[in-house]
Each structure stands twice: as structure tokens, then as C-alpha cells.
Amino acid sequence: MFPARPGGVDKKAALLAQARADREARNGQKKVEKENARLDSAARRIQQFLVRQHAKRVVKDKQRADWDVLATQLPATPALGLIRNLKLVFLLLRFHDTTECPMDSRRLASLCKLLLSKTTVVLEEGTFVRTEVVSPSSASSPQVPSPDAGGSTQPNEQQRKTMMQVPFQMILLHSRHADFASATLLRFLRLCITTITGNQIDSNASTKRLTPLKTYSKSQVPSPTGATSKAPAQELYLSGAELRFLMAYVDVNTYRLPETVAAAIRTQMQDRGAALIVKILDSGQFYKDIRTGIQLRSEALIQLQDRAKRTSITPAEATTQKALSLWITAIWRCCFLLQSIDKEMTEKAAGKIPGRQQKDDLINMHSDDSTVVGITCRILTIALFVECLDDLCLQLTLQSHLLGEALDVILDLRHRQYILSSMSLNETLYLIGNLTQLYRIHIAKNATSNNTTLKNRLVEVIVVLLSHCGKYVSGTQTTEFRQYHPIFSWTTLSQKDQQLSTTQAKHLFSQLEYLWSRDFALEAFRGLLNLSLPPASSSSSATDTSTNGVKTGGSEQHSSGAMITPASHHTRVSSQTDSKSGFHTKSITSDPQGALLAIEVQQACQLYMTLMRSFESQRTKILVTLMYLPSFLTQLWRFMNTLGPKGEMRIYLEAASGFSRHGLDQEPLIAILQVFCECSARFLITLDDDDMYEQQKYWSLSELVFMSGFLNQFCFTVLSQQEDTKMETDLKDHSVAISTTATTVYATPKEFIVKICQKDRTALQILETMPHVIPFSARLEIFREFIKEERAQRAQSLALVRPDLHQSVMVKVRRGYILEDGYQSLGQLSANGWKNTIRVKFTNEVGAAEAGIDQGGPFKEFMESFLEAGFSPNLNLFTTTTESMNMMYPSPTSQYTHPHNGLELFRLFGKMLGKAMYEGLLIEVKFANFFLSKILGRTVFLDEMRSFDEQVFRNLMFLKKYEGDVEDLGLTFSLDEEIFGTHRTIELMSGGRDIEVTKDNRINYIFQVSDYRLNKQIQDQSRAFIEGFRSIIPLPWISIFSPQELHRVMAGDDVDFDVQDLRSYTEYQNGYFDQHPVIRNLWAVLNEFNSEEKRAFLKFVTSCSKPPLGGFKHLYPPFSIRLVVSPTTSDLNYDSASAPAPRQFGSGAPTPDTTTNNPGRHQRSATTGSNTGGSSGNGFGSRLRSAFGGSNNNNSSRSSTMSTFSSASAVSSVSSPPSQRPTPRPMLPGDETPAAMGVVKSFFGGVLGGTGSSESSGKKARLPTSSTCFNLLKLPPFSSKSVLKEKLRYAITSNTGFELS
Fold first, then answer.
1. One Pfam family name from the record (predicted)?
2. Over the chain, what is the mean pLDDT?
3. pTM for this prediction
């Protein structure tokens, strides 16, 4: 409105700013006033609260003063009436608070002493004479009787006649104050319970107090109102008048009057006393109140007991230990006193209600009020509580039959849910430990009595409790089970606050160990072990199994692993049913006693299966305990054959096939089969041939045959049952959920292979779980299919992602340094690189590369030489077993000769072996059987010691069966070894050199020796080798083989090859064909060779004396025969300059001589001319045209530039890549065309007879030579069969070098 003056201040803006500032000031003032008002109000409330608290304290102080005055009027001998004592109790309950006034604890103790004494009263006509007058001031308060104004009065002569000494509980019969006295006494008893279970406040009290326990300095002290508050460094209450008062007033005998009192009064007193005791239970509150106190004192007592076992304790600690034990004894006695009155009241209440159902309803309605339930879920769930009980308490426990009653309430479905829901994981574990300890004590006290019923109930309860824990624990660490537990291994995070101390874990584990001890196992299976059972066998099954090569039910039976079908086995079962001959076991379940025994055995087996699942770390101990029970497995197998209406294991077969009314997982007796399988899997590997076959100590041969047939049939039937898209199988735990909708039957191995290729889930599970039922030839074909499929997948994925990875790996190797150059070139090559094509270029001593193109031959020779050098014992990477066995395994001393790169070398050799199997190459090396088992991922144990050292195995067997005093042998748990002249002692266990081998621990000694020899001493070497091998060949590919079968896959069959099979897959070059006279003579000569000569010939042409698995159709490159007509330059073998000696590798011995240096040996030979095999193209015209180099081209056949001798190396090709043959290389400069007319002459000379067939000219012909890299035989056209036989035999047996030509 008014323009601002130039250079002046805007008045409007100033006014607005001033108004805003004033407004903010007023608002600030209001906030300050409001805050001050709030603070004043809070101060007033605090002041009022403090005033009230002060008034309460004044009132309580006044009450304390009145109580003290009233207490001082009491004479030394209690003579006041019961009313005054009731007044003292009521006043004490009004002001008792030890946190405000520690002297209240002394007042409480004094009052308890007073109430425990008797009082003189006047009895008149069944009622008490009231000599007291109620104070008028108490009209507004509860009717509390007032004391006499004049203190005690002297009774006159008439009153003295009716006087008697009565206890304080007689106040419950007072005609006027009975109800008030009952309520007051109940509150007073609860105050005593709170005091007894808490800590001491007043250290100067007249009652007995002990030195504080530092472990529990932070315990909480309950207040009379039920709240708790922290108390600094307080002592545990251990004894006093309060404890004696509680013990007196929870005892029903306290409320029993003498016989001189009228019967009506006695009955009324007992009823009111019992009613008071029952009110103490009040929904189990008593056991909740005393639980904390018992827990604190039992922990302190266990600590003192544990310390006393380790070292001496002080007199003060010994006194404390005794006081703790007495306190627990007193409280435990109170629990049993309450239990007795609870039983009496429950039975009386139930007896008034007609009908059993009403009684059950009454008990069920008050399930948490039961003293047995309270003791079970509140007291027995305290850690190591039973170990804290003295002999008196244990005797009281056994007399009251607490163990049996606790087991009954847990098994009762009406109580079970309440008990399980009220316990945590550790509390459940404590309950199992205490119940087990009570049973152990019961057995010791009642060894001669029959404890079968009690044992069966205990077994059932432990199964219930451990099954309840199962959802919270796991044997392996996962994202859900991440919290470590010293007993259960791993638990859920919700249980992280329930951890155990070291002392608790140690003592608790000692309690639980009794469950898998020999004594308890004998008790659990006593009925089974005492049962007399005949051998279980089936004549029809034995006949079926003993027949090999017979087709039954459409399935061919193979000795190496038959295809088993459910259809054929069902036929066999029916034949057993219809058979009139042979042994048939009578069903034990047809007898009532036998049925009860079956249930008992099933419960015991279910217990041990539950224990193994819950305590995974103790699985081995549990199994060892069971399998070494006398005749346990024998009895268990024969017992299973008696189960069911038909016997002979048919209940399990019917359950597996879905023919029973419930599936396998619902079969009640499946736990028996589970225990048998778990134990037998470990027991059988501890037996030797003498136990199994000669003595037949455990099963007869017919039983073993029937057993193996049943197990094969059972597993196959289980796996063959599948739903359309779902099948849940867990054979490891032997729990299988199956459906009966379909049954898959594989009649032939070929059909099974097709299913495997189609990724049929059932077929894959059968192959993984029980490969032994599949013939070896089928599994070998499946193995090759795995490799073929993996090659195709890699090729497809790499073509899309990394086309550059298709490139082959080129390796340059000097002939004198094959190990060194191979390690440098391939040591760091990845697994994918190993699976690519590896090409090798050899160089001579001057560094020049040898001529030729690598199409597989040089790499094969490189692998031959590399493995031959690596497996040489001189290098000390591998060593051999005894001279008689001569099998390879990693050298235990390789770490000394190769300290830096030893493990890398093992890893490299593992990859090289995997590469050989991946490419289908045979290696002529024999690994020890135990090492093959390691490669397969199997556990190596005593039965494999035979393949390690026959003499050591015999010594261990001698020790195992030694009947004399084992200590006389002077053995300890240690071994003496000499390594490179240095003697050292190896302890098999901690302090083993000082632990003598006895009759009791000799089995452990045998296990330790076997474990060290087979596992520990070559642990690092084996791990490195297996890591390298499995990076090329995954474990699932080879787990389908046994160790012996794996050796066959690696090295081939040690049998004579089939000449006709070799002829069927032979290719011919340079004019030879199948019906050529020289070729016919060759096959005739081979047929006349003996086994040794045949193997020498095969080694001569392929470098391996064993034929490829599955026949020569799997030999790659295929066997070829080339015609060599004259010793031309390219055909002759010239001796070249010798290469320098190979250098030392690492710190080992020198490598074998691989310096034979012939560059032509590794060049790819020309394969022009006729390249057909078998009977194709055998016409005379076609063979004649091939002799002249083909029909319509100008390329003539050339002789090979490579002429080699069969080396003594250890590799041959066996597995042909998918129907792809290498194309003939183009003619290279320097290749020479053989004389075509010479070929024709060789043919006509052999057919028509001529100069070429003369004996003299044949003897002058060159010797046969070979190129093992290409499986090629270079055969001159010998004029006669005899000459060919003589020259060929000389070539394959001379074992010389290239001078043979």
C-alpha cells in the first residue's frame, strides 16, 4: 500500500516478522508451561506413590512390631492356644518381604519352629473351648482370632482334666475358624515352598546356612507375591525349619489323631488334611515351584561330584555336597507324599462316579493335576536328576513304582500330548536319560525278576520321545539345522538357548549309552535269542538261484548279474507255495505267544533304528553292539522267515509289491528287516571265507542263497513300483513309499538300456541302487552311452557358448623327457581341456619336430609311455603288493621322494587314467582290489586286506581266532616301520604304544591295523589320484561296477581272444582282402596258436594282450593288415642316433627307457587301396583292381612311412567313437607307391604256385612288423603257411626292437 522508501526498511515486512516472532514466543511459552505441568503431575504421582509406599512400609513396620511383641509373649515352652498361633501366621503373611526386611526370614523360621511344637488346648464335647476373645478392631478385616489379653492362663482343676497336647493343624477342626485356618495355612505352606526353593537372604538367621555357591550367585529370589527380583550373591537355601514344616504338613500321617480321640473327629481331621494337601497340587503348581530349586541344586551337586572324582575337595565343599543331597532327598520325599495322597483322593473321587467312562473322564479332566504327570514333565526333565538321588531316595522310588507309572502316563494318549508340549528338546533328552537310569537301577535291584513288561514299555516310550525330537534335530548341518548340539549334532535355531554344558553333556551321554550297551541289547532281544528256530531256506529258491544261463519267465539268468523281474519272482513265490517238497517254516504269528514275541522284537528293532537316526554319530557303535550279540543276525533272519501267515519273507514281498492292505512304509514289522539289513551290511565284511563257506558259522549255504535271492527280489520289486510321476524312495534308511499303479518289467538287458537312454526314473534308480542285477555287458554299454551322451552335450553347449573350446590341445613332448614335458604341459589343464582332443608332437634331441600328422596314434603312444613310466616302482609314486599278487597302489613313502609335487603327480595320473577310460583305451596295469574300491567310493575294511598283503591278512585272522591268552602275544596298539633306514613307531590310537591288545579289544586292534594300512597311510595320495580321476570320469558313471568289473573296464578281460571275432572286424590295405591266401594262412596260424602266443600276437599289434570288452567291434582304430611287398626305404627300420638318457624326475628313480627314437614310428600311415573288411568286396576283380590302385583315379597305393615294433607299453584302444572312422590322409611327399605287379605276383604266387612260393625265398622275406598306435599289422606275402607261422612267431616272441625287419 505504501511504497518503501528508497534505501529504507519495509515496514510491512518488519511488522509481519515481529508478529511471527511474537506468535512463536507464545507457542514456546505454552509448550514450556505444558511440559512443566506434565512434570508437576508426574512428580505428584511419584510423591503419592512414595507416600503410599511409605504408608505401606509404616503399616508393615507396625505389623512387624506387633508380631515381635506378640512373639516375645510366648513362653519358652509353647503353651498358648492355637488361635494365637494362627494370628501369628496371618500377620506374617501380611508383611513378609525379605527384600525390604531381611529379618523376615528369621521370623518365618521362628514361626515354623513354633508351629511344629504342640499346644495345650481344652477339649469339650468334640469342640475346642474358646478362651480367646476376638478383637473388635478386626471386624472390618478377616476374622482373625486375637490372643488372650492376659497372656497364658492357669487352668483350674476341671479344665485340667480335659486338657491335651495337640499340634497346630488341629485348628482345621475349629468350629468357627476352620475355613479361615485352611486358607491361611495353604498360603503359609506356599510361602515355605517359595523360601525353600529360593536363596537365603539373612545370613545371620538362626537356621542352618552354608557358604555361597559362586555358580549360582545370579539366581533370582522369589517374593511372597510370586514376583521375582535380582539378588546379589545370595546363598542357596539348603535346610531349616521351613523345610521341616513343609515335610510335616504334606504328610498325611500328620493329620492322623490318636485312638483316644473320637472316630468322627479323626475322620474329619484326615479329610480336611487331605483336602489341604490336594490344594497344594493346584494344577501342578507345586512341581512348577520346586523345579527351579531342584534344578539349581542338582547342577551344583553334579559339579561337586564331578570335581570330587577328579580331585579332592575341601571340607566346606564336602559339607555343601552332603547338604545338597539331603535337600534333594527331603523334596523328593515330599513329592512322594503328595503322590500317595493324590492316588487316594483320585481313587475315592472316581469310586463315587458309576461307570469306568466317568472315571476316565475325571482323570482326563485333571491330567495336569496328576502327581505322576507333574513328576514326569517337571522333575524327571531336570538334567541328571536321578544321579543326584541317594540310596534312600532310590529305594523310595522303586517302592512307589514311579518308573512304571511314568511310562504309563507317557503312553496314555490322554496325557501324552500335554507332556510332549510342555517339554523342550533338551528336557525331552533329560527325561530319556532319567528314565533309562531308573530302569538300569531297577534291573540291578531286581535282577532275578521278570522285567519284560517294564522293558517293553520303556522301549516304546523312548521311541515316542525320540520321534518327538526328530523334527528338531538332524545329523547334518543345513540352513534349517544350523545350531550345534553336543548330543544330537545339529538342531533348529529355535533350540539355540537349550544348549548343554560340558559336564551335563558328558553325564547325559553316559546315561544314554546304556541304550546301545550290550547288557540292554541282550535284555531287549532276550526272547529272540532264547528262541529255538530251524534254518530258513527254500528248496525252490535254491534250485532257481543255483541254475545259471536258464531263461525263466522271459528273463535270462546270468552268472555275472541276472536281469531280475518282478514277474519271474512272483512265479517263483507261487511255486514255493505249491511245492510239496523242501523245507517250509511254520508261521510263528499263528501262536498268541509268538505274536507277542513278534511285537516285542519289532519294538526293539524300531528303538535301535530310531536311535541310529537320532544319534547319527553313534550309528557304528549301535550296529557293532547288535551284530556281535550271540547268534543275533542268525536268529533274526530265521525269525523273519516265520512271520506272516505263509512265512518265507512273503509279508515283506507282498508289502513291497503292493499286494498287502498297507504299503511298505506302513508294514508294522518292517523295522526288523531294516535292522537286519543295517547290521548285515557291516557284519558280512568282517567274515572270512572260512566263516562263510567252510564252517558256515552263521548261515548255511542254502540260507545265503535264499537270502540273496530275497534281497534282490525285494529291492527290485520296491523300485519297480512307481506312480505316473511320483516315487519316493530312500533305501539308505530302508523306508520306501510306493504306489501300486504300475509295474515296470525289463525282460531283456536291451530293453533296460533303452530305458536308461530314455532317462526312465525307475531304471536309473535300479541302476544306481542295485546294479549287480544288471548283466555286466549291459552296464558296460550303459557306461559307454554315458560317455557318448556327455560328448554330445559338450559339443552342443560349447558350440553355442565357446566355439573356441572345440580346438584341440597341442602338446610338444621330447622323447627323453616324457614325464617332465607331460607334467609341464598337462598338469594345469582343466577337466574340459582333458575331454577335448589332445594332439602330441614329438621332438627329437635337437628340438626338431618329427614328421607326421597326429590323428590319435602319437597321443596313444604318449599315454602308453607316460603311464608306463609313472607306474614304474622305480619312480616310487606307485608300489606293488606282495610278489605273488604284484598289484599296484599308491606308495606310502612317495611323500618322502616327491615332497613338493607328489600330490600333483598323483592328480595328473588320475586324470590320465580317466582320459584313457574316456577315450576307450585299455591300460595293462593291475591295481590292487582295495584301491579300486577306493576309486569306487566304497569303504575299505578288513576283507580288502587280502589284496594288500596276504601275510598280514593271515596274521590278523590268526589273532581274531586265537583261543589262548592274547596278552601273551605282546601286541600293542602301535606299528613299527622302517622308512629308508629310519625306524619309527606309529600309534594306532592316542597312547597306543602303552595299550596292550587283549581278548576284549582285539577286534578293535584288527580294525585299527586295517584302517591304517588301507586308508590312513595313503590317504593324501589316494585323495589326489581320485580327485584327478573323477574330474574326467564322475563317480556315478563307475559306481555301477564292482572293483573286479572296474578292472575289466580299465584293462580288459584276461582271456584268449576270439579269432573269428577279430577276423570279422579286420580291415585290409594295399591289396590284401579276406580270401587272400596269405590272409587265410594268417587266420589258420592264429587258430593254431596257444593262449600265450595269442596274447603275444595281440600285444604285438595293439600293445595290450587283452581283447577289448564286448569284442573287437569296440577296437578303435580297427585292426588292419597291410601288404608289404619289398623292403623299400619306407618299410625298413633304420637305427637312428640314440637320444641322451632321460633326466631324473623329482627325487625319484629314473624313468624307464623310452629313448627308442624312430621318427617314422609316429607318422600316420597311408590307408589307400582296398579298405574293406569281412566279406564285403571279396570278388576277384575288385581285389585285382585294388591291387593296381583303384579303378578310376590316378592315385596309386603307397607304402607306409611308419614301421614299428609292438612296444611293451600298457595301452590299447578298446572303445570306438560313434561309427566315425578317420578318413585316409592325403598322399604326402615322399610316400612311395608299392609295385602293383608285385601285389599281383603275391596273389598268384600263393594261388597258382610260382617262384614267390618257394621255401627258400619265403625264408628270406622280412619279418612282420606293426604300428600299435593304429593297431596295424604289416604282413609280407609269405609263400607258405609254415613260413608265415615261423616268421610271425619269431616276431611276437623275440621282444626286440626295430631290427626285426
1. HECT
2. 74
3. 0.71
